[in-house]
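Name: SET domain-containing protein
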Amino acid sequence: MSGMASESLLQIEEIEGRGRAIVSSKPLRGGDIVLRDSPILLYSGSPLNGQQPLFSTSIYCDNCFKKLESASAASSCPSCFQNRFCSQHCLSASIASSHTPWVCQALSRLRDCPSLVLHQPLERQIQARFLIAAYNLALVSPPNFQILLSLQGYGEDKDAAAAQFLHSLISSLCPPPPIDGFSFSFEITSALLSKDKLNAFGIMEPMEFNKENCGQRSVRAYGIYPKASLFNHDCLPNACRFDYVDTAPDRNTDVIIRMIHDVPQGREICLSYFPVNWNYSNRKKRLLEEYGFTCECDRCKVEANWSDNEDNEGDDDDEAMEEDRDESMVEEATSEYEADFPHAYFFLRYMCNRENCWGTLAPLPSSDNNQSSILLECNVCGNMKNDEEFGVDAD
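Structure predicted for SET domain-containing protein:
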């Protein structure tokens, strides 16, 4: 796997019952960086009318997605005047890659048809952005487009209506120009939407803690990261993702996968596809609806018994109650090392205790094998914590 911090750290294997998996090819330490991956495709998470995402007050560059100090300091696309860039370099790079004349024209036509597009749910508007970016990728980088098509995900019947609407919309308003060796078709549109659903990573707005958003974050943009998408899910992951979109001096849209704790050789390396504080019913619903599988990790096996014992108490539609239980479940489980919850240690040490954050902590990379204590970084709010603060031994 090219792009690894050290290509010898990980390898792809088939695991019975789980299919393709990424496993450690040698013992790994907490804090080890096992992957730095660059996106082959980026697209905005903003509505097509140009409004800022929910819970966001940021203005950002439409090429590198760094935060802009002000709209007046930005360079605008000379054709549509909608897309903004942090520098002439980003403007020039975008016109040659992600904001080509066809993309500019396609987005402009979509904005000019509010009855067809802007009245659609935000999810549909973002899907339209993705499809335009994906078809543009076929024009500017056929090899990367083939990589996109090779990722997991196939058109599903339950998504057929969305695929049909979006394909007809793009066909009528902004069909892509002829592409050598590639045919613009409903089947490809449907397959692309499935690739996006299963593989896209959100580039999040920085965490803002105030009464209005209670720690919620918006998605600034989405990216397709072909190597990072190979990691399977676990509800108690041993690795987590970091990004530094506003602070990295270069390659700021890269994702970095870092080990949360030590693992032996041959262990599967997994991420969590959502915050680790979610309760069993919410995790099960999300994984089945969005990713098409039921998780059978060790944590789920324990919490499934809790769910069975509750005899389906409460209303499944009461989402607010379920969200409250996400927090209470963690508080109850980590109050002591309960015999029926052997994974409480994970929450005590590796979940951020900042109010409304629920990020995952991982040690900073270090070559010092004799540290008496370890500094851990939250992958959501960025806070640093010394493991001694948790009252848990580092060993």
